[in-house]
């Protein structure tokens, strides 16, 4: 029964990490209570990463990337030295799109570059589409680094449905009113009430020199700061608003981003038609700090078959943990919540019912439940004195009648261990009770020779005297194997002179081991005694094996861990 849940258990992340306040980086932790160990669930989310490493880049229109055919260009700051060359066929002179997302090592700046504006006055337009095929939540500023000057106008757009529909995210122009008909704004002017407003900013489009300012920023940090304070100290306030303010979470969510480049850097002046080789776009880097959106049901995001997937917990399922696992729909799916602070709420999907194929109880029950702690579907209310995940074991105090099939109503037979002769009411798989010293038999209701059954809870007690071997001295008479009636002037258990205790024969212990005692009332023949010692040693072994099955399985340690856990979970321990 164990290997399934056990393997799963070993694959779980170590549960002993403590939960830092408000970090939401752990989905569950192990708790022990009076009812045994169990899980406590928390809202959780994957850590942020720079998503540039995982983005698909596409540039439009076709042929916008320079170098095919090879082309000369110059720069705004060196307009008359047009000796630079872009050549797609040369590794050193080519500027393909992937150089926007590469890791630059050794300080060498690598960048994508477009053709020059040689077709002026036709506008020089380019679209850069960044796709992740996964909903993400931006957690810090998106920074686009332009070499040779920032565009004088551009739009950042986003899609939340993998590119089906798009919406503007922010407008950038050196003159917002002229280009977009919008009042120029800064994020610092935003208040909590209009935090999700799409603005046009002139901050990143004015000419200040190509080397001085390269960055075009989509300000996320400053927006967070409107709620969480300038240093983002009060993240609780942000998390609270994320829950309560309509559209706030969506504002930071995207699956794709698109940069629509509308007009290149002009060097602070009008377009000089005599030298169009200095107008083009060049982007060396795009940082997208974001986390996988998992609806607060996963603490990590995995790359599977080149697709980002949330590693869903809380019995949720799907790329974004956006639904309950099959069989766990007893209430409708809900995202996890940042509230109540600081730990949030997991809103775990819970077990409902399982199909008959999953609820297999060998005919001893028709109800199952799910134990999240060991991720196991288990039978409940096993009848006919059975127990276990599939009602496949006998309750303690019962043993399996091996000649009956597992689904027989009478498969579990009461041990009926003799209360006085046994040290426990439980027996082994084969029905052997655990006998106290001196008693024997399957039910421990028989005495070894040298022992005599006494009522009143005493069970088998060692004989003090008998008629043959443990004779009473000095003419005493043995009474009921337990005392000698001494002649006058003699005392002692066996009637030894002046109270000296002097048993005759080879001594009790030796006699017992050699099997010398004569059969008696509730006593046995020597061969039966030997037999019984064997049966008892088998009993010792089988006692140890009582809870493990005969199926081949994992090693002892695992079995033990597993047994402990299942035992708690399945209520195996006797009451
Ligand atoms: C860029 O994308 C927009 C929106 O889909 C489209 O209208 C426009 O034609 C594209 N521009 C280029 C140069 O492909
Ligand atoms: C996008 O993700 C979905 C899973 O939501 C997957 O089925 C599909 O294959 C992925 N597409 C690509 C192009 O990777
Ligand atoms: C946002 O609201 C604040 C106060 O309500 C106002 O001063 C500011 O101009 C607004 N910003 C925008 C971009 O609308
Ligand atoms: C086990 O089952 C068989 C077949 O029904 C029966 O004959 C036997 O008495 C049972 N043994 C015990 C110990 O109940
Ligand atoms: C000991 O066990 C064997 C079977 O293993 C059985 O045949 C025998 O009767 C048992 N002896 C006693 C005294 O219980
Ligand atoms: C017991 O012993 C004493 C002396 O030791 C003796 O006087 C007495 O007669 C004895 N009694 C019997 C009944 O033998
Ligand atoms: C059974 O186990 C007990 C304790 O584990 C031990 O003292 C005893 O000697 C064992 N008996 C046999 C017959 O192996
Ligand atoms: Ca680069």
TrEMBL record:
Keywords: Disulfide bond, EGF-like domain, Glycoprotein, Laminin EGF-like domain, Repeat, Signal. Residues 1-18 form the signal peptide. Residues 461-496 form the EGF-like domain. InterPro entries: EGF (IPR000742), Laminin/Netrin_ECM (IPR050440), Laminin_N (IPR008211), LE_dom (IPR002049), LMN_ATRN_NET-like_EGF (IPR056863). It comes from Sphaeramia orbicularis (orbiculate cardinalfish). Pfam families: EGF, EGF_laminin, EGF_LMN_ATRN, Laminin_N. Residues 415-462 form the Laminin EGF-like domain. GO terms for biological process: animal organ morphogenesis; axonogenesis; tissue development. Residues 40-291 form the Laminin N-terminal domain. Disulfide bonds join 415-427, 435-444. This is Netrin g2a.
